[in-house]
Design a protein that fits this description.
- The chain is mainly α.
- It has a domain of about 40 residues.
- α3 runs antiparallel to α4.
- It is elongated.
- It starts with a helix and ends with a helix.
């Protein structure tokens, strides 16, 4: 589990223990979460932060489109349309394969949050 995930879990548990979440609407029901299974687990917290800020990374859009195309290709009966979809999928897979995701910034941000929350907890 990433440091940022651990910090979030600690703060949520503290809020639960102090009863701060007892009166929220929907208490006791399952949350409807966004589908982020196409995002690597180690990048999900950072992507959620960016999404909440209104930014969707291009590689996430490419991953979603690639997943959609993989599903669609099996259903296309027209050969020309299927070849176009397969070509687009190959392009997306190539582009995604070339993407080198640098998580150093995420780690620095998580460490900064940890230090801040450690100070606030004192």
């Amino acid at each position: 589990m990433l440091l940022i995930d651990q910090l979030v879990e600690q703060h949520i548990q503290k809020a639960v223990d102090e009863g701060e979440l007892d009166h929220l609407p929907g208490r006791g029901r399952r949350l409807e979460l966004d589908d982020d299974r196409d995002v690597p687990a180690e990048l999900r917290p950072a992507y959620r932060i960016m999404k909440n800020a209104g930014f969707v990374p291009p590689e996430l859009e490419d991953r979603r489109e690639a997943a959609r195309l993989e599903t669609l290709i099996g259903r296309i009966e027209d050969d020309a349309q299927r070849r176009r979809a397969e070509t687009r999928l190959a392009l997306l897979e190539t582009r995604l394969g070339e993407t080198r995701i640098d998580t150093r910034a995420e780690r620095r941000y998580a460490e900064k949050l940890h230090r801040r929350f450690a100070r606030d907890g004192d």
